[in-house]
């Protein structure tokens, strides 16, 4: 018999600033989300840089009042054991946890071919063969509007991020997924893009109800 877990995700994010897609994901087959039940969810960004951590957690938490940042609740519990920290969350009536961590960061160099722009060949009296028999002046006059932009090498950084969803009541992982983000220019927008991809995948695999 399936165990029914009610999870609420009402997330509206802005347009994405990076190219983000799901690489792989897994869901607990015994957990089906049927209606609202998670009324208080902790958001945890597992990054060393405190500023990046707060930007990430604040970005997710700003989407809905049920999301609370971990730095508000766990910063003062650094000396506690994992069991004691879990009890703090239970005492604060948290139902679930969303965690996000950087798995890897890889740089890739790609060659972008050059581009050619200019006048259509038929522009010379309507016939390409019309150039023959003419001197340099006519030849140059025909091709001078044509330009070539040389190719170049472009370095792209790819970020692999793992997002996990835990049920505190059942004390278990109920969903996990890894996303790949490229052309990252803004941390906040990339977090938006990751969460959009996560929600889309969770709707697709049945972890979340359809829109």
TrEMBL record:
Residues 1-20 form the signal peptide. Keywords: Signal. This is DUF4136 domain-containing protein. It comes from Flavobacterium anhuiense.
């Amino acid at each position: 018999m399936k165990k029914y877990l009610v999870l609420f995700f009402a997330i509206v994010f802005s347009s994405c600033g990076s190219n983000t897609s799901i690489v792989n994901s897994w869901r607990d087959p015994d957990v089906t989300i049927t209606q609202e039940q998670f009324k208080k969810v902790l958001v945890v960004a597992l990054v060393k840089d405190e500023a990046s951590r707060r930007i990430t957690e604040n970005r997710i938490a700003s989407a809905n009042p049920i999301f609370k940042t971990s730095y508000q609740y766990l910063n003062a519990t650094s000396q506690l054991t994992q069991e004691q920290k879990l009890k703090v969350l239970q005492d604060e009536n948290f139902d679930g946890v969303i965690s996000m961590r950087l798995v890897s960061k890889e740089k890739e160099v790609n060659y972008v071919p050059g581009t050619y722009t200019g006048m259509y060949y038929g522009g010379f009296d309507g016939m390409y063969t019309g150039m023959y028999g003419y001197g340099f002046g006519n030849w140059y006059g025909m091709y001078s509007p044509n330009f070539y932009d040389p190719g170049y090498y472009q370095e792209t950084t790819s970020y692999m991020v793992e997002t996990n969803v835990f049920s505190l009541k059942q004390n278990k992982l109920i969903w996990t997924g890894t996303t790949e983000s490229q052309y990252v220019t803004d941390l906040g927008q990339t977090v938006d893009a990751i969460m959009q991809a996560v929600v889309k995948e969770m709707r697709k695999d049945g972890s979340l109800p359809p829109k």
